[in-house]
TrEMBL record:
Pfam family, one: ADH_N
The name this protein goes by in its record: Quinone oxidoreductase
Keywords: NADP, Oxidoreductase
Entries under PROSITE patterns matching the protein: QOR_ZETA_CRYSTAL
Signal peptide positions on this chain: none
Keyword hit for NADP: yes
An annotated Gene Ontology molecular function: mRNA 3'-UTR AU-rich region binding
Length: 322
């Protein structure tokens, strides 16, 4: 029997219950992975709440790291004992799981399991945001909301490495201080007086791009800090979805661009996924990016992890430990 966190009906964190389940041997093309660390991400709450649809019952979770215990027929790229990490979900909030081999990413010796589980989804998100959605180069100016979150802390370090001028926003002085220690040139406490005037002052003008995972609370004000033909990137909605709006506002505020990208669209092929992961793990291995793991919960306490995440009580990354 395997310990799993299961959701039988969508709702708040309390709908997640710990259960023992049976696990079949890996089928053709699968491997069995014993998890050593499981990543917790805001997207997990979207599946749990029902905002994102999936078949009930299910286990939340999209990423985990661990050790291969067995391989199914036809698997030749991996063997028992290999350290791996993956993005494949939902389904990761379990002790042991069968995973399609083509979803696995081998782990270099320079990246510990906990760091891999804490960074893969968030780090690959930053990779496509900064390297593809908008190709950040030296001299670009960026505004990044939720700078003290797991994605935000990676983004600050990566953007600094690319030579960009990056300003963040955060909701408390403690979060401001944390983000400042992770690459940002300036961080604004938007809980005090908003962010638009201060952002324009600190940047000396408007920004090339705004990255927003907050949603309702930061829109449409974010459009007011963009240069003409600037880009607004919406990649999350921790405060609720952006409400319907008149698309003419993009014209009125300077022929702006707006996009709602996803990690999986930018990593649709295995080749893209492995290349993105190699770039992320290279920067981590060289110490250019550090991954602050500020919250650890036992797997059985996944509901507490979601409560902390949704109350915005967390900083950096959160993991579950089987």
């Amino acid at each position: 029997m395997v310990l799993a966190i299961r959701v039988h009906q969508t709702g708040g964190p309390d709908v997640m219950v710990a259960e023992d389940i049976d696990l079949t041997p890996p089928q053709a093309g699968e491997v069995r992975v014993r998890h050593t660390a499981i990543g917790v991400n805001y997207i997990d709450t979207y599946f749990r709440s029902g905002l994102y649809k999936t078949t009930l019952p299910f286990s939340p979770g999209n990423e985990a790291a661990g050790i291969i215990e067995a391989v199914g027929e036809g698997v030749s790229d991996f063997k028992p004992g290999d350290r791996v990490v993956y993005l494949h979900g939902p389904g990761a909030y379990v002790e042991v799981r069968n995973v399609p081999a083509d979803k696995l990413i081998p782990l270099p010796d320079t990246v510990p399991d906990e760091v891999a589980a804490a960074s893969l989804l968030k780090g690959l998100t930053v990779q496509y945001l900064l390297r593809s959605t908008f190709e950040v180069k030296s001299g670009h100016s960026l505004l990044f909301h939720a700078a003290a979150g797991g994605v935000g802390l990676i983004a600050g370090q990566w953007a600094r490495h690319l030579g960009a001028h990056i300003i963040g926003t955060a909701g408390s002085q403690a979060k401001v201080d944390l983000a400042m220690a992770h690459g940002y040139d300036h961080v604004i406490n938007y809980a005090e007086n908003g962010f638009v005037p201060k952002a324009l002052e600190l940047n000396g003008g408007r920004f090339d791009v705004v990255y927003d995972s907050v949603g309702a609370d930061t829109f449409p004000a974010s459009l007011d800090v963009l240069k003409p033909r600037g880009l607004f990137v919406s990649f999350g909605q921790s405060s609720g979805p952006i409400p319907p709006f008149d698309i003419g506002i993009l014209n009125a505020k300077g022929s702006l661009y707006m996009t709602r990208p996803s990690l999986f669209a930018y990593n649709a092929t295995r080749e893209d996924l492995l290349a993105s992961a190699r770039e992320l793990f290279d920067l981590i291995g060289r110490g250019i990016i550090t991954i602050p793991i500020h919250q650890r919960f036992a797997l059985k306490d996944a509901a507490k992890a979601h409560q902390a995440l949704e109350s915005r009580a967390t900083t950096g990354t959160t993991i579950l430990v089987p």
